[in-house]
Design the sequence.
């Protein structure tokens, strides 16, 4: 199963924070780190795991951060909207973009392999750094309940995107 919002967040984040009015992000190559965790996972009794021979099993509710290289073009920096996510496979659309200074937030509505709603909040620290949070509640295509929260961090790396294609 794809990890919900882990791969969606860099696209949404990098294209959307471009509209923050007070500080404009730099165009070019950005390193984006996304960490998404499933909330409300049941706790498994360690004694029960040991009884069935899984004493060494470590259940990880917050996986290691995913890292992405994202290319943001000068044209994308000038946009004043969320990107169109309808064709990305999730069936998610971004709505209700709100800006306040260097902060940007919006809603997600998903009706594809993800079903549910979410939020994203982004703070542009300066032209070369941002951070934010995501939250999503719904179900996966397989009917698995999802209650996800995540953190997002971005750092500008270079004006040249190299082999990384823009979104």
Sequence:
């Amino acid at each position: 199963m794809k990890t919900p919002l882990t791969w969606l967040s860099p696209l949404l984040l990098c294209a959307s924070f471009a509209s923050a009015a007070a500080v404009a992000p730099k165009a070019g190559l950005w390193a984006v780190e996304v960490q998404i965790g499933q909330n409300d996972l049941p706790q498994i009794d360690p004694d029960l795991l040991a009884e069935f021979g899984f004493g060494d099993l470590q259940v990880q509710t917050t996986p290691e951060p995913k890292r992405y290289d994202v290319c943001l073009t000068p044209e994308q920096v000038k946009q004043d909207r969320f990107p169109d996510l309808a064709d990305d496979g999730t069936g998610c659309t971004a709505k209700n973009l709100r800006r306040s200074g260097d902060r940007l937030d919006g809603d997600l509505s998903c009706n594809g392999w993800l079903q549910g709603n979410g939020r994203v909040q982004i703070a542009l620290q300066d032209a070369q750094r941002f951070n934010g949070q995501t939250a999503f509640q719904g179900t996966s295509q397989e009917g698995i309940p999802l209650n996800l929260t995540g953190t997002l961090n971005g750092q500008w790396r270079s004006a040249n995107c190299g082999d990384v294609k823009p979104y």
